[in-house]
């Protein structure tokens, strides 16, 4: 008989990122981050992700000279910096057991190269963690979530330069030293695989600064530096906080063959293997042979020392986390419709509905993802991002969002099925438990939260927080540990 409840101690909660929530971009000694130069492009189709994340030296220079937040919504976020106590109280009211959040690297090290952290930044996070403790909310902290110091991007072209490893290790060690009384669960890099899709957002790589003809090689070199840094900080975290758990974080790009044509099946297999390889390195401590072989065929030479290989092998992660928003299909045919979503393009699945942003809704895909990942890695799993962006309407002070409740209910049921089938899933944090600035399109109108924030795409509004219908629904799910489903 299958269990209706989730396992005891299951970490129900939500997830935010500093760059999408905090605001206060020029307060408390914070330096500019790569997110602070991400523009809101009101006239670009919301499904044209490539244009939304496009950046170059010229646009970065212009952004650095612009001292307002008018075109740069991540500079203002939702003012979590000043309102964290109110927001955490709302999360506590929902019954959160966990909150995944990130540390803004440039709030602690404004240029990334300082010898000592900015103590005003350190104190801010201590205050946040103390507030969480009041409500018995466990922090799950991401060290790098699309917000590296802009100075490192401009000076070194981000992670392309090996010197950035030392900067990141210094930052991470400071986090472990100051936050160890409060934080047990750590993640190194958010969606480490996304470096190939949006290199600037993920790794501070300015595309027009890459060597012509060597773009792919330099991006993979930057990835290698991140993976080495991840292993080094995993080592340091285990030394400094013996009871800590350090995890990796993958965008789970679950892909099905569009048809049973063997070519479609082959392309799908290769796409899924490529998705896994980033987590493979962090779980198994070495690069998959098929990846190394592909690089060789493509003439990609990634420089890695014996010391790099040793640290990767010795310091693997304790658990695996992932984001799951949608599945897609793959086809060898040119005569298929491709659908956008999460800055990736996949072949549209005719059996699925989609959101207004073109993201296809596939709850069964979450169960498939959990089964695949657990079978492959045999480590505890955590779903640390999942949710749907939608337009919400306020009617007489109420926000009725049955579409959101339906989305989560169907995904939770599939997650429970996977657990009943034997998957060790220890937690779930919905993406954007409160409305925040969208990662890809920098919009506020693409709302994910159980809590509505009164702010529009242009920064207008009172910032008042309001509970949506889904707030009370999720509260009930947590309160009954899933039995109310």
Automatic annotation (TrEMBL):
UniProt protein name: Family 1 glycosylhydrolase
GO cellular component assignments: cytosol
Entry annotated with the keyword tRNA-binding: no
Pfam families to which the protein is assigned, alphabetical: Glyco_hydro_1
One GO MF term attached to the UniProt entry: beta-glucosidase activity
Coiled-coil annotated residue ranges, if any: none
Highest taxon in the source lineage: Bacteria
Keyword set, alphabetical order: Glycosidase, Hydrolase
